[in-house]
């Protein structure tokens, strides 16, 4: 996502033109027409993304839907985790915000390819859950062996 940011930032990318392009309407349309077309396109995108597992996986679709639910739960866990002066979690919150902005601006179904920008936040969610499930008395590999274990 960051790799694609310099071009629009340096050369400029009017929001009206971007919305018109993803909504398939002329760029000289009124804001009202663009807003209506955008919300229609967003609904279409959500519908297509939710139907994608059923359309492509056949009998394995329930497994994919379960996976999507788990991914959503991990993203929610990251979003609810307060940074508490920890730069890693602050970056994860920025990742979620930037990813949401990218997905809302792109607004077209692509079989979950654009959603790959969420992979770092999902990985942080996995780490968060693993940390919560880990025993608190000893973390092998993190602190080294305890005295007397050698």
UniProtKB/TrEMBL annotation:
Query: Membrane spanning segments where?
Result: 60-80
Q: Under what name is this protein listed?
A: Uncharacterized protein
Q: Which UniProt keywords apply?
A: Membrane, Transmembrane, Transmembrane helix
């Amino acid at each position: 996502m960051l790799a694609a940011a310099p071009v629009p930032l340096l050369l400029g990318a009017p929001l009206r033109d971007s919305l018109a392009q993803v909504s398939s309407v002329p760029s000289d349309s009124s804001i009202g027409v663009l807003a209506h077309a955008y919300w229609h396109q967003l609904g279409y995108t959500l519908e297509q993304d939710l139907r994608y597992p059923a359309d492509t996986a056949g009998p394995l679709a329930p497994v994919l839907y379960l996976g999507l639910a788990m991914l959503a739960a991990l993203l929610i866990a990251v979003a609810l985790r307060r940074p508490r002066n920890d730069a890693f979690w602050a970056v994860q919150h920025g990742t979620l915000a930037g990813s949401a902005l990218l997905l809302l601006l792109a607004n077209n179904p692509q079989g979950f390819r654009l959603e790959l920008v969420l992979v770092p936040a999902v990985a942080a969610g996995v780490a968060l859950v693993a940390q919560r499930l880990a025993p608190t008395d000893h973390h092998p590999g993190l602190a080294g062996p305890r005295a007397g274990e050698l």
